[in-house]
Amino acid sequence: MGLTLYGLNAQDLCSNTKYLQKNSIFYIMGDFNFEKFLPFVLKKKPLAIILEKKSKSKVDYKNIIVVEDVRKIYRQDVEKFYYDLFTSFEHIGITGTKGKSTIAYTLFKCLQNLSQDVAYIGTMGLYYKSHHESMVNTTPGLNDFVEILKKLSSEKIDTLVSEVSSQAILQDRVAIDYFRHRVFTDLSEEHLDCHLNMENYFEEKAKFFRGKSNYTAYILDRSLYGDRVAKSIDVKTIRYGLKNSNLSDDLNGLTLEYEKTDFKTHLTGFFNGENIACVLSVLSNLNFKKNEMQKALEEVKFIPGRMEKITSFNGGFIYVDYAHSSESLEFVLSAVSSKVKGKLNVIFGCGGNRDPLKRPLMAKSAEKYADIIVVSNDNPRSENPLDIIKDIESGFSDKARYQIILDRKKAIEDTMSQLNSGDVLLICGKGHENYQIIGDKKEYFCDKQVVLEYAKSFS
Q1: In terms of C-beta distances under 8 Å and separation of at least 24 residues, what long-range contacts does 197-202 make, across chains too?
Q2: Is residue 303 assigned to a domain?
Q3: Is pLDDT of 10 > 90?
């Protein structure tokens, strides 16, 4: 790797000190801790340091380059500098509030089952071959992303399926122009603590479909926000969904008719029918045959933490799901409610230091479909858990419909103990996550493990 940039023969571009080497150009972002990290940077003697004009901290160095927007410049420089690396992959990106993880991971597993050299990056981490590692962000920082591409390239991976978050687009850390396939699911209230309102939220998502036009767009056909995206672009656009499809669904999975062919999957729920329709649209556009797609899809057993069936207990069935917005919770509960022979139980909470407006909406969604509702902790962070609960409670119309058990482990075990034959317990909010954030501490906690250990204690 090497390219002349700013008149310098650079070997690498860095915005993260852990990757900084000699003959690199280093970019100082707005959240850079000068006191802690600047001595280390200076000791490494980079070819140049890129600094934002509005930075209040002075840097005494032989080669300082001052720019207006360092994040934008870094992204543009990275796109040029690593052109060969980026273009060595077929990039597939999925954005939207709901469905990103399910679509991305299912597509990844299908492509794997079709003998493709593929990787997945998203909420559930980094997957390729038999490798898995967790990541901090759904969409990694651009420096981390480049290092991941280097690693994947060395592993002969040539297709990458990525979840693309609105925060990553907002922070200019997505090399959008390299995505040959771009999926828009839909939008609902989420991340409004970051974007302030739905229009701002939509604008960030819509940016993913602007720029160079050598890509295919896949847009959910019932999405009004998707309609706006479709009208604003002039590229090959595939509208996916269930408008002209027959769908049969039970707790064991669903069968979807796509282009007059039945496709069976272990996933369940109307919303997953839409997700599967998207996956099939992408696979079809990649020129796979229907019989190949059928086999590849049926071999996908589950999506970690997405309507994942954990076990049965006392004749009831227990699932974990990542649903943590009012609309996602309503989608999951509505999908399950019509199939439950007994009572539908749900456990959920809301994250601390996050959008408080969604809390009463979560209560309304739960009350609409569940028979038994337990409100518990879900990453309270530095916020008082009782304040979070109070916000949630304001959305309930009937106080007799719910109970509060702050201790999430106790909430799960107590609810499991009350299950009877035909009941379903849906534990929402964490899905694949294996931690609970209380204060500034990230403690190990796994819904799935709690369920299995409690069930085992009775075996």
Answers
A1: 201/166, 202/228
A2: no
A3: yes
Residue 72, φ and ψ in degrees, nearest 5: -65, -45
Question: What's the angle, vertex CA 22, arms to CA 19 and CA 27, rounded to 5?
Answer: 55
Q: Kindly compute the dihedral angle of the four CA atoms of residues 105, 107, 111, 117, in this order, to the nearest 10 degrees.
A: -50
Say if pTM beats, i.e. exceeds, 0.85.
Answer: yes
- CA separation, residue 375 to residues 191, 330, 450 (Å): 21, 15, 17
Amino acid at site 156: K
Structure tokens at 151: 């690693």
Please tell me the predicted confidence (pLDDT) of residue 183. Answer: 98
Mean pLDDT of the chain: 94
Number of domains in the chain: 3
Range of the domain at 416: 308-456
374 by Cβ neighbours in 10 Å (0-12 / 13-18 / 19+) ranks as buried
Task: Identify whether residues 175 and 278 lie together within a single domain.
Answer: yes
* pLDDT on residue 244: 75
In a 10 Å sphere around its CB, with 0-12 CB exposed, 13-18 middle and 19+ buried, how is residue 171 labelled?
Answer: buried
The CA distance from 93 to 76, in Å, is: 19
Of 274, 298, 322, the domain-final residue: 298
Residues 217 and 274 in one domain: yes
In a domain? residue 20? yes
Q: What is the pLDDT of residues 318-331, one digit of tens each?
A: 999 999 989 889 98
Kindly report, residue by residue over 388-425, the tens digit of the pLDDT.
999 999 999 999 999 999 999 999 999 999 999 999 99
What is the arithmetic mean of pLDDT over 346-370?
96
